[in-house]
Structure formats: structure tokens, C-alpha cells
Amino acid sequence: MNPGIGLRCKLFVTDLDGTVLVDAGNGCFMPERTKQALGALHARGVHVVLASGRMHESIQVVAKSLGFQGAIISYNGAMVRGADGALLSHTPLDTAVSDEVLSLAEARGIPLNFYHQGKIHSRRFHPWWDLYEGRSSSPMHEEPSLLPFLGRQATKLLMMSEGSVIRGLHAELKPRFAGRANVLISSDEYLEFMSPLADKGSAVERLAAHLGVAREEIVAVGDGNNDIEMLRYAGTGLAIADGRQALIDEADHVVAGPGDHGVADFIERFLL
Fold first, then answer.
1. Among residues 53, 83, 79, which one has the least CA distance to residue 70?
2. Which segments of the chain are extended strands (E)?
3. Contact at 8 Å (CB) between 84 and 68?
4. Exposed, middle or buried, 64 (CB in 10 Å: 0-12/13-18/19+)?
5. Which of 205, 235, 201, 238 is nearest to 223 (CA)?
6. pLDDT tens by residue, 214-266
């Protein structure tokens, strides 16, 4: 470990689920030790940023529990808001692409979340509705059909199903939407569609430029495939030990999961 990393760190970006949040089965929580470590970083003057595939409103609930407000990267990088809540960037899907994905999901009966103007619109497919709502505590609105949303702008789309189904859909749809959408598996049960210009790495780059922070002054941590670009961009990248192997291969350091206080331990030992 470079002993100077704590002196250089001016921007600390962390994923949420599986990184600093523990899945309790009926909801997620952040261990108190992790909250205190992030709060200590903030008190020292480091920009502490939450970056997640969740919508902004869901991340805001977590941010409030920390006792301080930092910038938020939401929708896997499709939206960035400053610490004051000001919109810094919004990169939604092209409407023709979202129409195509929506029509496909409706025709095949695939559970789909349609993220539109700070709300999630979805048909109530069990157990997928319950799984997502329980994990994210997001404002979900039940719709008998998503076809009325054709022509509306989606910040993100998310398909849900068993892992084997999601992997099959990824293999089918990633080449189909190449250059038109960023298609990725963010969790075993989730297949996400964003603008091809939207990812966490690009969002961190835009935010760092806004804050006047150099690349080598950034520390980023995550556990999933949607964190790869973020770790590549950051000066120092941390991966959770039981995270995706592709992410671990990109990381400078590997830390324990949220239940074992890996992020808190790293902050305490090297950044404070």
C-alpha cells in the first residue's frame, strides 16, 4: 500500500449494495462502523460520494442516514447530482431504444422496471417486485401495462428474472443493442439498459472535473460489473473480496465485504 494515499485522497466514491450495505433479506442496512468511517472522511474534507445503480431517490435515503450530504451518482452513472442536489448531468436512454426494450419485455412477459422522472413504473410480477422493492426501498408504481410508456424518456430500464434467464437475455440483447445501449448484468437477477454514454466511470470523471479533483486523488470501491469503469478511472481502485472476478482483476486492492467492515477498515487504516 502506498503510504501517501491518505494524504492524496480528495474524492472517495463507493458503491452501495454488496459494498457498504448488508442485505438483511428484508432490506439493506449500513453497519455503524462504516457510517462512522465515511463520516470521518467527510469531516476531514474528503468528498464522499455514493454511486449506485439505484435511482437518486433511493440513494438519498441512504445518504440521509449518514448525517451529511455529498454528491450522488445514480442509475449506474446516468445521473449525477451535486451535494446541494443540483443536477450536474443526466444521460437518459434514446426513446427509440427504450421503446424497443419495453415492447420486447411486454411481449415476452419479462418483469421490467421503467425509470421515469424519479419514479419506477412496473407490472407487479412476483417475486421480482418484492425482491427489488425490499432491496432498494424505491418508490414503485404498479402499472397494468407498460405500453402507455412508449415514447416516454427512460433514465434506465431493468429486467428481472432468474440468473440463468438473465444470462441468456444478456447474451442475446447485448449485441442487438451494441452502440445504442449499455447492457449489463448488475446483479444475478438484474439486466440493466442505460445510454451508451452512461457508466459510473464517466460519471466519476465528470464529477471530479466539476470538483477540481485530479484522477490520482480518487479512491473508488465496488463489487459488481457496473463498477469496473469506475475502478479503472480512479487513481486507487478497491474491490470487495466476494465481488465479480472481472472487477477484482481491475482492482489495486481487495477488501472484505460490508458484513466484515472491509471498507471501514481500509478507511481507518489508510485514509484517516
1. 83
2. 11-14, 22-23, 28-29, 47-51, 72-74, 79-81, 87-90, 112-116, 119-122, 140-142, 156-160, 182-187, 190-194, 218-222, 236-240, 253-255
3. no
4. exposed
5. 238
6. 999 999 999 999 999 999 999 999 999 999 999 999 999 999 999 999 999 99
Phi and psi at residue 69, in whole multiples of 5°? -120, 125
The SS3 of residue 1 is coil
C-alpha cell belonging to residue 35: 457510517
| Edge-to-edge strand ranges of the sheet holding 72-74 | 87-90, 79-81, 72-74, 47-51, 11-14, 218-222, 236-240, 253-255
What SS3 class is residue 113? strand
Nearest of 148, 150, 144, 79 to residue 117 by alpha carbon: 79
- The DSSP bridge partners found for residue 182 are 194
Q: What is the pLDDT of residues 155-191, one digit of tens each?
A: 999 999 999 999 999 999 999 999 999 999 988 999 9
